[in-house]
Every structure is written in structure tokens, then in C-alpha cells.
Amino acid sequence: MQSEPVTRPHLLDRALAVGTGFRKEAQSAIRRSLHEFDVLEVTVDHYLHGTPRVRERILAIADELPVVVHGVGLSVGTAVLPDKAYLDAVADFVERVQAPWYSEHLAFTGVPGRDLAQLIPLPRTRESLDVLAENLAVVRAHVQVPIVLENITYYFTWPQDEYDEVTFLVRALQESGAFLLLDLENLRINASNHGFNPVAFINALPPGIVRAVHVAGGMREGLVHIDSHNRPVSSNVLQLLARTLLRQMPDTIIVERDDALDAFDEVVADCQHVRSVVAGFDISNSASGVKAD
Ligand SMILES: [Fe+2]
Description:
single chain, alpha/beta, 37% helix, 18% strand, globular, disordered N terminus, binds fe (ii) ion
């Protein structure tokens, strides 16, 4: 069923909008702090599977603040064409909140009839690239906004990998006509766990390919860094943000927080820290102002 469209300021009136992700557990704190955010990121699956009250609150917030749409239910790397009913529901929500693009994860999360409830890394192979391009063509036929894919954390790699991570990522985006949601905490964690240089990764990304950025705070268990989204954003991630802004001009920078949400003042502080980094760049005169569209 089509919902009524809303009229509100468009997100793309500005670049480098700073905000956080809507979480129902923090909805009162988010509402109290709306003035701190330029944008909110809403996970479409939280809306589609939400109670009527949660859906109502999401739409109420979307009437007040620009919204970008994220997703966890697509499983774009599964070698089966995406569920068209799901895509139509995503498209309806994207239109309802007038989102400028739709982001998902470069991963797979299941097969028809079985949800793994995990973001699983794709084998970095030619075959995976073909599956992605075919699936994203179907997504594009249903959802009439640009598609943005996020780099995930991974705790293993496949023995059949043919490419390193950044080579595979850039090929996947360029061959399927998608943009990148660069999660800098995921990059930091992967670089630490798998032993590569995160700055070299950032420098390997073509200018204009990063449409959005995530930052978050994670933890460490023994020798392994975990993507826990329960702590303030680290100074390492803020430094990676500064490196990114030398070459890219994302529309949005979203602070992700999924746990310890009672300390919501930390999310507000994280947004302020992000703004401090952004303030160091002259947006109008930046070499990163090369938009790919
Ligand atoms: Fe993320």
C-alpha cells in the first residue's frame, strides 16, 4: 500500500550532514536531542517489522528531520534473486520519507527460508561480483534511488578469495553502479584483526565513491576487536574520518550505537566530535568535492 508523501527540506541541500541511527530503545532521548542532528538514519527493517507505535514515531520524526534509509534484510550477496515483495516495501518507505538513497551491506545474511541473522562476508570471487551485479539490477528496478553498500566486519575469509578486500569492494561498486557506505569502525576493526593499513584502504577508494560514512565505538575481547556499537567513537576512527574527508565528500556521517543506549549523551558527544573533524575541512573548496553523479 502506498503511503502519503511528506513535504520537508531535502537532505541533499547540504553535504556532510551529521546524525545518528534511530533505535526504538532510545526514541525518547533521540526526540529530546533532535536539534543535535542534521539527519537520522532509519533501518527500514525496524520500520517494516515495527509495532504500529514504532512505525508512527519513525514517520513523525521523518516529518521533522531528513532521513536516510539503511537495511539489513536484502542479503544482496545470496545467489538467488532478491525478494520483490520486500523490495517493494523498501521502495514504499524510501518514497514515504523521501530518502536520497538506500543503503545495505556488502554481505549475505541467508537463503530463502533460512535467515542466518549474521552479516557473512562474500567470497571475493568473480562469481560473487556477477551475483551482486545481477541482484542489484533487480534492486534498482524496484527502488528508484541510488544504491549504497557498506563494508562489513568479518572474522574469517574464504579460501577461494581471488581479490583483497578493497579491490573486491571497488569492483563490486563500480560493476554494479553502487556507491559506498564507508564504515570506519568496521575498517579499523578489520585492519586490526587482519593486519592491513586502513589509510592505504581509504586512499585506494576512487574520489566520489563514498556517499555515506558510519562511525561507532567497539570493544576488544582478548586479541580480537569486536564491532559492538556500545562505546564512544575512538580517536582512531575520528582520525580515519579526517583521512577520508581529504578525498571524499559523503552526504552523511552517522554515529551508530546499538547498546548501552542509556548513555545517550555519549552519542550526542560523538556527533559533536564528528562536527569538530568536519569543521577542519572547507567543504566548498575541497578536493573531495568530486561527486560521482
Ligand atoms: Fe555500519
